[in-house]
Amino acid sequence: MTAQITATGAAIQGRLEPCDLAFEPGTVTMLVGPNGAGKTSLLHALAGLPVATGEICIGGEEIAKFSPGRRLRYLSFLGASRAINWPLLARDYVALGLPAGAPRESVDTVLQSLDAEGFADRRLDQLSTGERSRVMIARALAPSALALLLDEPCANLDPQWQLTILERLGAEAAGGATVILSIHDLELARHYGDRIIVIDGGHIVEDGPPDVALSADNLGSVFGVARKNDHWTRV
Amino acid sequence: MRPFFYLLFVLIVSGLAIASLTVPLHSLPDLFASDPDLAWVVVTELRMPRALLALFYGAVLGASGAAIQALFANPLASPDITGATGGAALGAVFVAYIIGFASPFGIALGGVVGAGVALVLLLLLAGPRAETATLLLAGIAISAITGAGTALALALAPSPFAFYDAYAWLMGSLVDRSLPQLAFAAIPALGAIAYFARCAPALDRLALGEDVAESMGYDVVSLRRNIVIATAIGVGAAVSVCGAVGFIGLVGPVIARRLTAGHPGRAILPAALIGSVLLLAADIAVRFAPPDRSVPIGVLTALIGAPFFLWLVARMRWSIRP
Amino acid sequence: MGNSRIARMTPPRALLLAATLWLGISGPTLAAPDRVVSLNMCTDELLLLLAEPAQIASVTHLAQDEHEFPFWRTARRYPANNGSVVSVAGDRPDLILTMGGIAQDRTWLAERIGAELVVLPFPQSLADVEAAVRTVAAALGREQRGRQFIAIMREMSAARPEAPQETVFLTDSGFSVAENSLGAEWLQLAGLRVPEGQGARVTAETLLVDPPALVIRSDYRRGQTSRGQYWTGFRFIERSPDTRIVLTDGRRWTCSGLSLLPEITRLRAALAQ
After folding, report:
1. A86 touches chain B (CB under 8 A)
2. Is residue C73 a contact partner of residue C65, using CB atoms and an 8 Å limit?
3. CB contact, 8 Å: B253 with chain A?
4. Which residues does B170 contact at the CB level (< 8 Å), separation at least 6?
5. Residues A72, A106: contact at Cβ < 8 Å?
6. What per-residue confidence (pLDDT) applies to C17?
């Protein structure tokens, strides 16, 4: 089963201007933009958080009308914070991402796929930040939701793990999921994204394939950087 | 879990068997032999309400403590921080000594109204989004105001015995409560516990972070408001009948989470069970005080609970490393 | 509240009581309760003074404490309770006397075990004491005895000394009797009056700056170490050469009930010397 995500008039007062967007299944969309541009706000709006206004539909159905149990199968969201609210075991933390009645084996499968079974039975507060990030990503992946909305999944990860996670998300998309994530590394965004949305000051300033969205002009005007001789410089 | 159920059963039976040191254990079987009707009334209408009050009051303290701790993502939060306990005490003392409507019903009503006023004040102070820190601070401020108000109401009371009389009740006592009083405390308590139990999945998901819980379709703002309201009603009604009993709402959930691998929401019903066990045990223990001295239950639970609390604080300080 | 027994009395019994009052018959009537318990030390005093000994089923533990209660020897003849209905239920009481107790539902519980309940208000004047005596005497079927005590109170009141002497009553921590309180009314019977504007407590400074000529000092738990016993004010009056200190039995002032009658007589005699 696959599903299109549509947002109509999605907005957050003072942080995100109203926008209409559609996301096709099987694609990876990267949200890029400077700090405070509105990437997190757009993800919040797409995830249907109460702070946002507008209508979000998955497969033509409005998610605001879903029961929590049903919503878990449609949409999975990873917040930007890696803070621990409760010192749960890593395995239990991942299991909380599953809808009631889902098989517990999927917890082991996803933890194994992220090479996290070694610390699955340790408490979250006893893990390193990178390990904790992988557990939190595993939580978002566990329910195999139709839509994956991830706020900076690469944060706190070493380069190898950043690549591993992005490859994994590409595989999820290939399997039919709609993947939307925010990212700071523009090279990774260009390489792993099918579509890039550039946000600045709460507006969507560019939306298109990587080469169009991350044109030299946009890099200069939005980020104030340029690519010269294989490294970044300020303009 | 199961051992706690056995323990609960044993405690209820002991609660029915042991009245106080002044009443010998064999007196009840003797009474059944000589006057079964009276003996039956003694068991069902005198001893049963006391045991069941301990059961329901302990349960609502444990469950609301677990819910409040889950809500505030803080294992050191307790139902008192909603200001409900202080509000109920002030309302009841005001009705009994200043208005002079000192029937059990008047006091219970005063307690619930007092808890309600404290609650409205808390929600007004904390604002519509009711952030965690604001709620905590507002609760502390309200507790301070109601504490001072209660002391003032007692100081201004016309009867010189008012302070002593109220003290015996405010510090927690279950002696000589009737079936109507039991109903008055138990029905709101059961309602609150049922609501908390319904919130268990949402509270577990809150452990993933507020934004994640909201993305899953849980309305965290109304969850927070409703849990505070349910706590005030459930605990407020119980306080107005039994007085304030501290630390059970703090300690019960901590023990309960050991049974639920730390899950804060799933711990609600076990916390209710453990709260019942703790309060029943405390209420039986105070019956062994010398007969000419009475030990308020709140004093006993604080004596045992406070060191536990200190241990918890120390352990948290030592275990949190960067 | 004190009339709850009379209010719930069945008509024949009320008629009997009315007839007793009219004919002036004394002594226990047929309907008089014969298993009476008291759950409060102040009702213990009324019970012990007004009831036939055979009527008394139980008194409180406090009443058996020699530091708390003047008639503790008498109280020890009876079984003790801890002030709760549940502790006396097995005694099958037919009348329960008590005072205060705001949170307990004694009315309901007493009804369920088939006992009459008399809850007296905390007395705040001699008239309240008389009313309490009348209520308890009527409930016990001992109106005659009640009238005798009231008569003694009135005689004492009529024979009070003409010019009252000003005094400061002192107990632990400077607690005193306020103007217009029950304690002040009892002091009047002994020919004493409390200073104008006197509150329930005296400050040590008042005693130092303006030492009273006469102090009635309660001996309540005197000699037992407590903070209240070390109150600075006591030292000031002990050092004041113009102050006369007369001791009184502090236990009798706790309830300020009938047990003060002989104490007032004793104080009068002591003051006359």
Report:
1. yes
2. no
3. no
4. B89, B93, B150, B243, B244, B298
5. no
6. 43
Question: Which of B28, B161, B294 has the CB atom closest to C122's CB atom?
Answer: B161
B201 touches chain A (CB under 8 A): yes
- CB of B217 within 8 Å of any CB in chain A? yes
User: Are 3 or more Cβ–Cβ pairs between C and A shorter than 8 Å?
Assistant: no
pLDDT tens digit sequence for C144-177: 999 999 999 999 999 888 889 999 999 888 888 8
Mutate to test the interface with C, among B38, B170, B292, B295 (most CBs of C within 10 A): B292
AA identity, residue A61? E
Query: Is the CB of residue C206 less than 8 Å from the CB of residue C194?
Result: no
Q: Report the C-alpha gap between B136 and B69 in whole angstroms.
A: 11
Query: Which DSSP state fits A43?
Result: H
Q: Report H helices in chain B.
A: 2-17, 27-34, 36-41, 48-72, 84-93, 104-126, 132-156, 162-170, 179-198, 200-206, 210-215, 220-242, 248-259, 268-286, 297-319
Amino acid at B265: G
Tens-place pLDDT, residues B31-48: 888 888 888 888 888 889
Structural contact between residues A57 and A99, judged by C-beta atoms closer than 8 angstroms: no
Q: What is the rounded CA–CA span in Å between residue A57 and residue A74?
A: 10
Backbone phi, then psi, for C202, in 5-degree steps? -110, 140
User: Where residue C119 falls among pLDDT bands split at 50, 70, 90?
Assistant: very high
Give the closest-approach CA distance of C69 to chain B in angstroms. 13
- By C-alpha distance, the chain B residue nearest A86 is B207
Q: d(Cα A142, Cα A132) in Å, to the nearest integer?
A: 15
Most confident of B31-45, B84-98, B258-272, C28-42: B258-272
**Do the chains contact at B176 and C109, CB–CB below 8 Å?**
yes
Residue B68 contacts residue B203 (beta carbons within 8 Å): no
Give the number of beta-carbon pairs within 8 Å between A and B: 74
State whether residue A95 sits within 8 Å of chain B by CB: no
| C89 contacts chain B (CB < 8 A) | yes
Instruction: Write out the two tokens for B311.
Output: 């241990």
Tokens of C143: 């109106």
Which tokens in the block code for residue C134?
């009348």
How close B127 comes to chain A (CA, Å)? 16
Are residues A85 and B216, on separate chains, in Cβ contact within 8 Å? no
DSSP per residue over A61-109, as a string?
Answer: EEGGGS-HHHHHHHEEEE-S----SS--BHHHHHHTTSPTT--THHHHH
**Number of residues in chain B:** 322
Edge-first strand listing for the sheet containing C80-81? C80-81, C56-60, C36-38, C95-99, C116-120
Chain A residue with the nearest C-alpha to that of B73: A85
DSSP letter at C60 equals E
Which of C83, C107, C109 is opposite residue B45, by nearest beta carbon?
C109
Torsion over CA: B119, B123, B126, B131 (sign): positive
Q: Is the dihedral of CA C125, C126, C127, C130 positive or negative?
A: positive
Nearest-neighbour CA in chain C from B294: distance (Å): 8
Banded model confidence at residue B176, pLDDT cuts 50, 70, 90: confident
Residues of C in contact with B291 (CB under 8 A): 61, 80, 82
Q: Please give the pLDDT value at position C252.
A: 94
CB distance A18 to A26 below 8 Å: no
